[in-house]
Every structure is written in C-alpha cells, then in structure tokens.
Amino acid sequence: MARSSLTREEVLEAAASLVKQHGPAALTMRKLAAELGTAVTSIYWHVGNRESLLDALVERTVRDMGAVRPTGRTPAERIVSVARILRRELRARPHLIAMVHERGLTERMFLPAQQALVHEVHAAGLRGARAADVVRAVQFQIVGSVLIERNRERSPAQSPAEGEVWDPAAAPDDPALSRALARPADPERLFLLSVRTLVAGLLAPAG
Hints:
The chain folds into two domains: 8-63, Orthogonal Bundle (Arc Repressor Mutant, subunit A); 66-203, Tetracycline Repressor, domain 2 (Orthogonal Bundle), CATH 1.10.357.10. 71% of the residues lie in helices and 0% in strands. The protein has helices spanning 8-22, 29-36, 40-47, 50-65, 75-92, 94-102, 106-123, 128-154, 162-165, 175-182, 187-203. Helix 2 (29-36) packs across helix 3, helix 5 packs antiparallel against helix 11 (187-203) and helix 8 (128-154) packs antiparallel against helix 11. The longest helix is centred in the C-terminal third of the chain and has 27 residues, at 128-154. It is flat. The chain starts with 7 loop residues before the first helix and ends with a helix.
C-alpha cells in the first residue's frame, strides 16, 4: 500500500542512504519508491527526474558539510576539531562526495570549513599569505589522510602482512618498535597525531 504522505526531505534522505550504501548506480526511481513504500510517480512529483534528484542530493551534501562548529579552548584545539569534523564527514559519505566532485562543487563544499579555519588562524594571530598556507596545509592533511585510508581499505590483502613483517628480529635494537608496528594501524589516532603536530608547528612563532 502506497504511503499517503511524503516529504521532499524524506525522499532525499532515503536517496542519500541508498547512495551511501551502494553508490550512485544503485539509485533508481523504482528502488527508491520501493524503499519509501510509495509510487514512482510520487517520487517524480517531489524531486523531478533522476538527474534532478542527483542534483538535489549534491546540494544537500554541500549544505550538510557546511555545518562546521569548532570546539576547544585555544585556536590550535579548535583547528584540530575542524579537521576531525571534516574527516568524519568525508569518511561518512564517500559516494556523495564523489558526486559533488563530479559536478565541480568541491571548492564550494569545502568553503565553510575553510572559513572556520581562517577564523581560528586569525585568532592565533596569523595574517596574509602565512595564514592562507596554514589553512591549506590543514585541508591538504585532511583530504590526503582520507584518500590514504580509502586506498588501504580497498587494497587487496597483503602477504606478508604488517604483523608478519615486523617481528622482534626485524629491529633487534628496538623490539618495542617491532611490536608496535606489528599491530594494526589506528587511523584516527594517527590522524590526530599528525594534525596536532602540524598545527603546533604552523602556529609556532616565525623563526
């Protein structure tokens, strides 16, 4: 039985969920209608054709990525918080981010996060080209980290694996290093370590 009422936002939410789980190719009007328990004509009435739906999803993603609210007591802490938020959002919706990129809206999507970073860099006392370098360096660190993580996740199983390569005999003068490298990497911890170190260096007084 078809649903008697449906909102545009509900259609977009269901469409976004399908894309997140299975990619844009899995998003068909019939599948979306079945997901919502409604008629295909109802989907068309709310969002138009499939291309219009994809455009609306991209705009929605750009809008959602704009909700950046830094936390922390110092500019450095707040910059790190922006980096964590942006990484989390990029990791949560790779297919939707790819759609944004394909439509040439990547820079617009990143603008709110850039503006938040600019505000904190100014609060740290930096201006001009140096401030711009800090903003871009942090952004590059975030995007680069996400790309590396995605590549590791999609790569085939490695043989030998990290745990098999790094045994105590590999570094006899530092067995603790071998034990640490034999354990799986913690992307979140390494990301925070790299961003905090980067930010501390970038905000340090010149010279």
